[in-house]
Design goal:
- With 386 residues, this protein is α+β, with helices and mostly antiparallel strands.
- The protein is 13% helix and 13% strand.
- The protein has one domain: paralog of FGE (formylglycine-generating enzyme) (Alpha-Beta Complex), CATH 3.90.1580.
- It is built from 7 helices and 14 strands.
- The strands form 5 sheets. Strands 12-11-9-13 form a 4-stranded mixed β-sheet. A 3-stranded antiparallel β-sheet has the order 1-4-14, with helices on one face. A 3-stranded mixed β-sheet has the order 2-3-10, covered by helices on one side.
- The longest helix is centred in the first third of the chain and has 11 residues.
- The protein is globular.
- The chain binds calcium ion (CA) (2 copies).
């Protein structure tokens, strides 16, 4: 079994801070399954496909669709990109076990941000509210009684491509806890947002994303809403644009090309994050649903969510009531979706729409951001973004 630990996981900042090993290959079955989620009803707006609100959000029509996947043919197609002897993304080996089975889901219509929230957007929020993100706060010593207080400093997790070849077994070979890293300094104190105001905001923990969404009169999408939107009206396709990763030899999203983690050759035009909207929109007008940066969803993460959901069509699923990740029991995680500029056939491959990621709620990194949704009328937005 060519299974590697945590390929759809994000580093936990405290684990990284103390250089504790991230969990290895845990059991795929959780100890105690949960019941399918209760399903609150979301108000339905009536708007035509292709509608664009004054603040630039686009209408995602409600409807029923196949959620999860991807299918074997799509997995084989990504895997065929690899040369003999190259490392293989674990999901391409085990079939992305937490992402199946595909099951029928129905969601009401909603408005969604066309792009990931940008630094420009987040700057406006921070200026208006004085909000201080998790990464800008000192970790509470009471929560880490065994830690040297000198090590409990504000900071966050930063991708640091190694200069020497490494195996894919230990993500700490390319993730570092960097004191002073936060959304204003995504790679640490020496980095700035200069020239990057249209890049997605990163280094945001879940509560930071929620705080922004509340301020903007919006909320984070559920995982079902996110996937409904990402599919752009296509049925059963593995990408927001169709059924092949490249179209006419051109990359359709910001991913990673070359040997992971140290050899990104930027074949898609970008090493690291790209300005939002650098690639073509999907059928609903959304950009970067695959790739660029991961996006927080509101659902708690469990690997068995879809196996439980598959017993019946779900209506506006909100996810399980609690989190459980056998890779890191005890770490509360929410769902990430869409993959990032670090995804390739060698590692991650979560640019495939139906696949899932996960992240500790208190942890951002420089490849995780978010976008928002709204079900109310556009005119009710107190702080519209252009
Ligand atoms: Ca790239
Ligand atoms: Ca994205």
């Amino acid at each position: 079994m060519n299974r590697r630990p945590g390929q759809n996981a994000q580093p936990h900042r405290i684990a990284t801070l103390f250089a504790a090993l991230l969990a290895g290959c845990g059991p795929s079955e959780p100890a105690s399954p949960v019941q399918p989620s209760q399903v609150p009803t979301i108000a339905t707006n009536a708007a035509a496909t292709g509608s664009v609100a004054d603040d630039g959000m686009v209408w995602i029509p409600g409807g029923e669709f196949w959620m999860g996947g991807p299918d074997d043919a799509s997995i084989s197609a990504v895997r065929s990109r690899l040369q003999p002897g190259e490392p293989v993304c674990s999901g391409l080996v085990d079939g992305f076990r937490d992402s199946g089975p595909a099951h029928r889901v129905r969601v009401d219509g909603f408005w969604m941000d066309r792009t990931e929230v940008t630094n420009e957007d987040f700057q406006r929020f921070a200026d208006a509210t004085g909000y201080v993100t998790v990464a800008e706060r000192r970790p509470d010593p009471a929560e880490f009684p065994d830690a040297d207080p000198a090590l409990l400093v504000p900071g966050s997790v930063v991708f640091h491509p190694p200069t020497e070849p490494v195996t894919h077994e230990n993500p700490l070979a390319w993730w570092r806890y960097v004191p002073g890293a936060n959304w204003r300094h995504p790679e640490g104190p020496g980095s700035t947002l200069e020239g990057r105001m249209r890049h997605p905001v990163v280094q945001v923990a879940f509560e930071d994303a929620e705080a922004y969404a509340r301020w903007a009169g919006k909320r984070l999408p559920t995982e079902a809403e996110w996937e409904r939107a990402a599919r752009g009206g296509l049925e059963g396709q593995p990408y927001p644009w169709g059924n092949t990763l490249l179209v006419d030899g051109r990359w359709q999203c910001n991913a990673f090309q070359g040997p992971f983690p140290g050899g990104d050759n930027g074949e898609d035009g970008f090493r690291g994050a790209a300005p939002v909207g650098s690639f073509l929109p999907n059928g609903y007008g959304l950009r970067d649903m695959s790739g660029n940066v991961w996006e927080w969803c509101s659902d708690w993460y469990r690997p068995d969510t879809y196996r439980l959901a598959a017993v019946a069509p779900e209506f506006n699923p909100q996810g399980p009531p609690t989190s459980f990740d056998p890779d890191e029991p005890g770490v509360r995680k929410r769902v990430h979706r869409g993959g990032s500029f670090l995804c390739s056939a060698q590692y991650c491959s979560r640019f495939l729409i139906g696949t899932r990621g996960k992240g500790a709620v208190d942890t951002g990194s420089n490849h995780v951001g978010f976008r928002c949704v709204r079900v109310s009328a556009p005119s009710s937005v107190p702080n519209p973004t252009p």
